[in-house]
Design a protein that fits this description.
The protein has about 110 residues and is an alpha+beta fold. The protein is built from two helices and four strands. The protein has a four-stranded antiparallel beta sheet with strand order 1-2-3-4, with no helix packed on it. The longest helix is centred in the N-terminal third of the chain and has 31 residues. This is PepSY domain-containing protein.
Length: about 110
């Protein structure tokens, strides 16, 4: 067995292993320090509407039995990304508060 060749092979293996370990460590470090960004892109417009300016169908629904005793505190016209619209109505009844979503025909929207 040739001792100088064996030593050269061992040096080569040690250097290769060290290089791979350093490369792996720098990759792990890069992953640890890079921030994770999650972007939720839901686009909608929300425009304040005076309760008196709500459509008659919406006012009729709000004055019905289902919402008896509830007082409208604010209202918004919400336009979603698909251009559909609904009214987001904040209402209060004593200490309770709720959000009611109705379309322009006064039908409940989920």
């Amino acid at each position: 067995m040739n001792l100088p060749n064996t030593i050269n092979k061992m040096k080569h293996i040690i250097l290769s292993t060290t290089f791979i370990a350093m490369l792996g460590a720098s990759h792990v470090q890069a992953n640890v320090t890079s921030p994770v960004v999650t972007e939720l892109n839901v686009s909608q417009d929300k425009v304040a509407v005076r309760p008196d300016d709500l459509p008659e169908a919406v006012k009729n629904t709000l004055s019905g039995e289902a919402y008896a005793g509830w007082q409208v505190t604010s209202a918004f016209l919400v336009t979603k990304e698909d251009n559909s619209q609904y009214f987001e109505i904040n209402a209060r009844k004593g200490e309770e508060s709720t959000v009611i979503n109705l379309d322009k025909y006064g039908k409940k929207v989920d």
